[in-house]
Amino acid sequence: MMATPRCYVSTRKGLFTFERNAAGWAIARAAFIGDNVTLVMHDPRSGDLIAALNHGHFGNKLHRSRDGGATWTEIATPKYPEKPADYQPKMPVEGMPVVDWSLKLIWALKPGGASEPGVIWCGTLPGGLFKSEDGGDSWAINRELWDDPLREQWFGGGADHPGIHSICVDPRDARHVKIGVSCGGVWTTRDGGKSWKVTAKGMRAAFMPPDKQYEENVQDPHMVAQCRSNPDVLWVQHHNGIFKSTDGASTWNELTGITPSSFGFAVAVHPGDPDTAWFVPGTSDEKRCPTDGRVVVNRTRDGGKTFETITRGLPQQHAYDLVFRHALDVDDQGRTLMFGSTTGSLWVSEDGGDSWQALSSNLPPVYAVTFEKSA
Amino acid sequence: MPSVRFTRNIQRHVECPTLDVPGATLGEVLNAYFAGNQRARGYVLEDDGRLRKHMAVFIDGRQIEDRDTLSDAVSANAVVDVVQSLSGG
Fold it and tell me: What is the mean pLDDT of residues A36-43?
């Protein structure tokens, strides 16, 4: 018997669990009402759920559910190491150096590989990558990355501090992990975090002075998505365009000529077809809203040679919904997609993005949309 | 001993009853309190021990001066109030 399809929608005022029943998708459960839920991770190995909450005054916390979201318990929060007394920060390319070694935001949660139950990776602002080996009961910062001199040059993109928002664990080898950093490019480890290398060759940062635009460590990938069936194919929605790699992030190619815009935050890739990916474009960085007030989804099915702009079921007049980087997801069949917006709209497609249906226009601002997936 | 009281708003996240704890500086007083309530520490202090940006502490009604190392003096019969700022909401 197939499990009930389920999707977790993290919002500014709570966590909403949508389930697919005979009548369609509907909210089956609400949790943390009134609290700022920034992210949820479902662990296909254990069934655990981990929710990241940002309480503002009281800081960021993690809660775990081991009964499908019926009850939650607060677990350990990643804690930054003590800063050496003689530490002198180096100035990054722009912005402020990370002088506060203190957690600002939990921005990525990813289960480790099938071969390492209990391992969870956690990306944060101001640039620390944490790992748990016990399902979230304890966390340790990855010192190798944190102590890398290039890490000190990362800078904030939008936020005041640099942050790790994307974590891709290679399904063929759990030691092979990639992270996306705003702003710091894409980084790769092939030995489980013992050594790291920036792997953003070919990315272009139009926001930098001309002689620095191709520097790898200044890139602002908004989101990195890895194809599950062909993990050497990665798609990136970058600050100034869409980039793709077919060689495991060794090199990147910019895809151009995309209408109505190649700007955006979110990207999802078909788990079984590396040539199919979805984006939700917006007017370029200085405006950050849908072009001409029309919400559209851009889809490619030929590896980025062409893109089609899909409007069916989406508002085409005076809609100003912005879709954040974690607020678009595709299920593990590559058929059902969902995305939510800053103005509380949520849309679902059950035909691979051909058409869309509004599930709500009244949710709190949506930060993340996460399908429950199989191991 | 100084008495430490917490804002009502924190109570729904982590229970923080009013307690008398030893200490001659704010840092010593809060450390003594958190020794018996480790989870509450992260709700009030940053990872590096500073007072969270949008928290405020009063000692006998006087707002503290040292938010970084919590060195403000606390007298034996002082009342320490840990509240949230109106900023940061």
Answer: 98
Shortest CA distance to A187 belongs to which of A213, A221, A156?
A: A221
Q: Nearest 5°: phi and psi at B29? A: -65, -45
Question: Cβ contacts of residue A314 below 8 Å, gap of 6+?
Answer: A294, A295, A296, A297, A347, A356
The ipTM, to two decimals, is: 0.88
Residues A222/A206, Cβ–Cβ less than 8 Å: no
Strands (DSSP E) contained in A200-307 are 221-226, 234-238, 241-245, 253-255, 263-269, 277-282, 297-300
Instruction: Give buried/exposed letters for B44-64 (b at 16+ CB in 10 A, else e).
Output: bbbbbebbbebbbbebeeeeb
Give residue B87's pLDDT band: very low, low, confident or very high (50, 70, 90): low
Q: What is the pLDDT of residues A200-237, one digit of tens each?
A: 999 999 988 899 999 999 999 999 999 999 999 999 99
pTM exceeds 0.90, yes or no: yes
Mean pLDDT for B8-35 is 96
Return the biggest CA–CA distance within chain A: 63
Report how many Cβ contacts below 8 Å link chain A to chain B.
46
Average pLDDT of chain A to the nearest whole number = 95
> pLDDT tens for residues A77-104?
999 999 988 887 766 665 566 778 999 9
Which residues in chain A have their CB less than 8 angstroms from residue B8's CB?
A: none
- Residues of B near A (CB-CB distance < 8 A)? 9-10, 13-14, 39, 42-44, 46-48, 50, 52, 54-55, 84-85, 88-89
Burial class from Cβ neighbours inside 10 Å (0-12, 13-18, 19+) for residue B36 reads exposed
8 Å CB contact between A180 and A162: no
Structure tokens at A263: 């700007």
Partners of A80 on chain B (C-beta within 8 Å) are: 47-48
| CB spacing of B47 vs A79 below 8 angstroms | yes
